[in-house]
Amino acid sequence: MGNKNKKIFDTIETLIGVGTTLTGDICVTGSLRVDGKIVGNIKNSGGVIVGDKAEIKGNISTEYIIVDGIVEGNITSGAGIELLNKAKVIGDIKTTILSINEGAVFHEKSLMFEKEEVENNDTNNNDDTKKK
Q: What are the two backbone dihedrals, phi and then psi, of residue 123, each rounded to the nearest 5 degrees?
């Protein structure tokens, strides 16, 4: 993926560390890194990094996301989704750009859109963001 998208992660504003479990929906501005566990939905206007030890049970809506841990839920991203080699995603993906590295596991379906379509679907169709 382009360096422009990765610049979102030059500064991590919010960190959910290893050994931390958060239950409930969260809304974050700026970049978020998760190395712990979250049971709930994430809404983010910047970028999300799901570390290799992270576990998320809930839907994620963000501008850009890099996954190297486990996500059980749908992911919607306007700028792109990157699944690294330890990633395991069980849920639907909606994005403009999808990169899946060797070793990553992805179950369900992916929908590729132009950026405007992803943003419109995310804001107008909240039924798709309900937990599985």
A: -85, -30
